[in-house]
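Quick question about two entries, pasted in order.
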Amino acid sequence: MNRANGAERTAAFLLGLVALLVGGGVVALHRWRVDRPVLDPAVLDLVDRHLPWVRVGLVVLGLVLVVLGLGWAWRAARPESHPDLVLDERLVVTAKALAAAVRSDAERIGGVSRARVRVVGTPALRVRLTLRHGADVRAVWGELDDRVLVRARRALGVAALPATVRLDLAAEERERVR
């Protein structure tokens, strides 16, 4: 329903954890063995004996990391899809039409001052309602669930139409003194 950030969060967490462990290891090694270099002399000898291969490996590793970073950035920056709903081979309900119909129904609920609806994902609805000051939240929620969303599912002929609902409370209207 929300933009799928699970993979990005997991990758960022793992990258941060690896960086933390490497940094902590270097600090611990430096603290406990002040007289020794960070890399063991045996490792440095191995690197010296196979220097061309080590360089090629590091360049390839750097290129792979650059490609992964660019792919990650591209995935995070690309816009969300707003899919149309194909009901029949000749009947397609556009995302805009579905969003406008649900928004119109949601704005008729008592206590709602404004509604924003977006169709995202597989499709699913992302509904944002701004409630008037003093609106009964339970009544608005019940009417949205029992009337608006049921009507949308029935009109589309689908058993399930997932929806994420965000309720915003409007500030109290102030009286202007003239």
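Here is the second entry:
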Amino acid sequence: MKLSILDPSPVSSNQTAQQALQNSRALAQMGEKWGYTRYWMTEHHDLPGLACSAPEVVLSYIGAHTESIRLGTGAMLLPHYKPFKVAEIHHTLATLFPGRIDVGMGRAPGGSAEVTNALSDQFLQQVFKMPELVEELLQFLEQDTENNRLSASPLPDIKPEPWLLGTSKKSSRLAAEKGIAYAFAHFMSDNDGRELIQQYLKNFQPRKEGDRPKVLVAVSVICADTNEKANEVALSSLIWSLQKEKGEGKEEMPSIADAKQYELSDVERQKLAKMKQKMVIGNRKEVNRELIEISSKYQTDEIMVISTTYSLEDILKSYWLISEEVNHS
């Protein structure tokens, strides 16, 4: 089973945004050392506590401090941008870091209605045009001069690999129709991912001879030496989610100690339990067992792990334990 990293670059209450981005670099470096296949950074806008508004910029920084791990936008929110510019960005990255660049495409706004208006005009109309936007971007990435008079230079020797990210039938169907790889966000979905991936595999239409469907599943995982410790470490991000939903608390992720002091209402206890159902939390053997089940359930050999914790030490420990158990079991 291949392992990869999805990083929202969280800012904890004892950190600056600069430190959070430096932690992201450290995570990518250690992930490379531990055999992770790819490192993707999410794109969010005007969300306190996340330092990932410009993943394409951070990837150039991380690429300069790593050697082999694949780097990608997870995802570039296409309705905000012109496909030509997106192609230029990723061609530049692919020129700097040959054979290492992924283009993740998504249709979500990535923030509030206000930030959506600040980023782009007519966002909803662009969402409806998503199939056309994806096709236009693919033609630029494929350096299709027959259908495009423009070249999104610099043109790299090794083209970036396109991925479509999503949680819906629309995203699954579109990835299949366009003949590109599909990343299913298990950690943020209430849908039956098995049905979506079956639909993708069944309807996949290769763009060129030899193309095959490719699937990864992004899963929220917290791993520690014991189940008790893993649940303790997970508490910071879980309480943070509840605080953000209520518009209360600090903008950054609370410490474990502060999270333990948070008084949960009965409704919040139910929400917390529901959030934990979407996550994999436990010791290395427990986590490995659940990841194998998820891999089998979704018919994929690649799991993309998102571990959001308060301290860099706990983040790195989680990713290290996962890789050690998966790679040596």
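Reply: The chain is about 45% helix and 15% strand. The longest strand covers residues 215-223. Hope that helps.
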